[in-house]
Amino acid sequence: MPGLTSPASVTTTLSYFTPPDDGGKAYQKVITDPATGNRSVERNWNSEERFNVVIENLRGREDTVSLDKTGFQYFQHTSKHMSFANDEEIKAEYYPESVELIKKLTGATRVEIFDHTIRKRSPEQKSLSGPVSQVHVDQSSAASIARVHRHLPASDVPKLLEKRFQIINLWRPIHHPALDWPLALCDHRSVEVADIVPVALIFPDREGETLGVKYNENHKWKYLRGMTPDEIVLIKCFDSIQDGSVAVFTPHTGFKDPSTPDGTAPRESIELRSLVFYD
C-alpha cells in the first residue's frame, strides 16, 4: 500500500513482564464492583518499560511471516459484517463468516469461536477495553486444553485432543485504519523458553492462565503499518505441536507508534478467539 511502506521500522517503548518480588506464583485477578459493574485488575507482578525497541514494518513484505514459521500471518479480507455495534449481531453475523475464513486460511476442519473483544482506545489510554500495552501471550498450554473442555461437548473432547489443535485469534481494525496504537507481534523463533512465565488469571467464577513475557534483547518485533478493516492478522496463541517444528505462540502488544500522524483517529479493533482443530 503506497505511503505505508515507510518507515521501514520504528523505535518505541514496550512494557515487559517482571516476576513477583517474593518469588511466588504470578497472578492477575479481575474484580467486578457489584454496585456499578465496573471492572478493575489486581496483580502481584510488575512491568518494566524497555526503551528503544525496534519494530519492523512488514508492509510490502507480508509474505516473510506465517503461522507456522513466526506464529502470525497477514491476509486481505473484506468482512460482510461492517457495523460491529452489537455483540449479538457480531455473534450471529461475524462469527459464522469468520469460522469459514479461518477454515479456508488454515485448512482446519473444525473451528469454534469462544469469545471476542472490541477495543477502542480512549485518549487517556485508561480503559480496560483499550489496546493492551503489555507484552503477553493469551493462553498457556494448560489453559488451552482447559478451553477445549470448557467450550465443547464432553463427548467430543477425547478425540479432538488426540489430534492437532490450536488457539488462533483473528484480529482486524474496524471503521478506519489502525495507524494509532497498532499491534506488534514477536517472531516466535526469537523467543526463548526462559522468557515465558505462567500467570494465573483469576475471575470470580473460574481461573485461567496466560503467559507473561520477560525482556530479551533478541526478540524480533514486527507490525503492519496502517492495517485497514480489509486486512486481518491471524495470531497463534497455542499449538499442540510442540516438537520445535512449528511456532507454538506469539507474544504481542499494542504500542505507541512514533510515526502516527497527528490527529489520527484512535484505534478501534476486534479480535475473535477460536479453537481450531485438524483431522
Automatic annotation (TrEMBL):
MF-aspect GO terms: oxidoreductase activity
InterPro entries per record: AsaB-like
Coiled-coil regions listed: none
Highest taxon of the lineage: Eukaryota
Family assignment from sequence similarity: Belongs to the asaB hydroxylase/desaturase family.
Protein known as: Methyltransferase
